[in-house]
Amino acid sequence: MSAVITTHGLTKIFRHHTAVDSLDLVVPHGQVYGFLGPNGSGKSTTMKMLLGLTQPTSGSITLFGEPLTRASRMRLLPSIGSMIEAPPGYAHLTGRENMRIVQDMLDLTTAQIDHALATVRLTEQQHKLVRHYSLGMKQRLGIAMALARDPSLLILDEPTNGLDPAGIEEVRGLLIRLAGEGITVMVSSHLLDEIDKMASVLGILAGGRMIFQGSRDDLFAQSVPDLVIETPDPAAALAQAGHATPVAGGVRLSGLDKEKTAAVVQRMAVAGVPIYQVRRVQQSLEDVFMDLTGRGGLL
Fold it and tell me: Residue 264 pLDDT more than 60?
């Protein structure tokens, strides 16, 4: 898959703080790229650099195969829609009036505005004042503004922030549908379960550095799930297992690959420990994320 975004050694230093450190980013075409990391890991700073809103201290950015420079920025940005931080919009205007401002600023057609509103399912609410919009409707209006110019790339920071489950599901479905239509979507979120449901490629930051980038399967392959050995004699199992934790119906062990698991089970069998079952604990994206980031806090 061709890359829509690539960075090489991308770095941003604020005085004595390195917010982004030597970041090599690859966002493939037509995919939902989930951008994850604890608070302060550099996600928003990275997105702002990709949009030319913040200048890198060093490193390079390539968009659509072309280096992002001061000279190329105005040529590249019309192909990018974005929503960073809070959704835009004037509360005293209607949704349609807000979209008309975008239309005039970007010299868009009425058909483009109509299509953007229809895409986020706001056509019926377009003449309602934004102050009367729900948070989900405001988020969708922000996405409509980002979509109005028919972008090839969407960069969205927390597009499901504050939404109820129905609103989250609606935005998730929208982003998956847009990717299916060939639009590349880069999205950050603190809702790991939602990213897990929508993203085909993941990038995880910690301390400004990329600690993982790849598919979900690649990510889970890097983490070893805990092992539970069910036995009616947990005391005897603990004596053979070493570092283990007693749980209901047996013991739980961490960090054991296939070879170490086989060795522990063999020791127990030789010692006469009855073993009913050996199983891996099912992991969620949050479990793997916390392992990789050293349990460094929530997103």
Answer: yes
Distance CA 44, CA 291 (A): 22
| CATH, residue 62 | 3.40.50.300
- Other beta carbons within 10 angstroms of residue 198's beta carbon come to 21
CA gyration radius, the chain:
24
Cβ atoms 41, 208 nearer than 8 A: yes
Residue pair 172/21 in contact by the 8 Å Cβ criterion = no
**How far is residue 165's CA from residue 177's CA, in Å, rounded to a whole number?**
18
Which structure tokens are listed for 294?
């050293």
For residue 193, how far is the Cα from the chain centroid?
10
DSSP 131: G
Lowest mean pLDDT among 63-72, 79-88, 128-137, 193-202: 79-88
Is the same domain home to 195 and 235?
A: no
Taking only the tens place, the pLDDT of each residue in 124-152 is 999 999 999 988 888 889 999 999 989 99
Other CB atoms within a 10 A radius of the CB of residue 66 amount to: 11
**Backbone φ, ψ for residue 42 (5° rounding):** 110, 10
Q: Which 3-state string (H, E, C) describes 236-294?
A: HHHHHHCCCEEECCEEEECCCCHHHHHHHHHHHHHCCCCCCEEEECCCCHHHHHHHHCC
Beta strands 184-188 and 80-83, pairing class: unpaired
Three-state secondary-structure class, residue 110: helix
Query: Angle CA(249)–CA(254)–CA(259) in degrees, nearest 5?
Result: 100
Kindly report the average pLDDT of the chain as a whole number. 89
Pull the structure tokens for residue 252: 């739980």
Range of the structural domain that residue 35 is part of: 3-221
- Encoded amino acid at 126, one letter: Q
Query: For residue 179, what are its two tokens?
Result: 């990717």
Do residue 243 and residue 212 come from a single domain? no
